[in-house]
Fold this sequence. Notes:
Blueprint: H1 7-12, H2 18-37, H3 47-64, H4 66-79, H5 84-93, H6 96-109, H7 116-123, H8 128-134, H9 137-142, H10 145-158, H11 168-172, H12 176-191, H13 198-207
Helix pairs in contact: 2-3, 2-4, 3-4, 4-6, 5-6, 6-8, 7-8, 12-13
Amino acid sequence: MSSNPSPIHEDLAPGLDPAARAWLDAALAEAADAGSSGESDNVAAAPAAVASWELRFAAAGRHCGQEHADSVRVLLLEQARAGLATLTRLYHQGTAAERRAVLLALPHRVTGPGALPLIEDALRTNDTRLVAAAVGPYAAAHLDSHGWRHAILKCLFTGVPVAAVDDLERRAHGDAELARMLADFAAERTAAGRPVPADLHHVHHLTGEES
């Protein structure tokens, strides 16, 4: 494992019991070994060389508790120096909880827009945990205006609080098309006899457009 523990690790470790801490230390060491050798993102690597830390990734909730699983998985991805190929594989073969961890790790692991297909896939689901993770810093930096507007509507449709949307105020400001889409969505809800989410009015206000 790295000789300079992540701040996440330092915050996480005191909340784990001794068995969970020992498991985490072993898991991070395995991930670091794969990362330092380049195996973690080498599609030609022998499956056994990669499988060890990836199995730990899948088992994080069982060994460290579901409340810590996101942080543990993000740490493993960091230590393994997981790149886009590994992140994409883990996302598509993983459970919803594992997919969420991959989404949370994207801002730290991928510098360009290459992981946008993962964001777009998450936004096509109605899983609120995935939607909330998908509208974080990576989406704020890389989603185009069309995709970002639809991400806002997805949050409103599924009940994900817009507080989860990174950089909301800056991106919403002056966006007349977003304001129009919000007004149409509100009109549809009203016509159907359904309540208009309070968050919709908040985002509309951020656009600076008149209601």
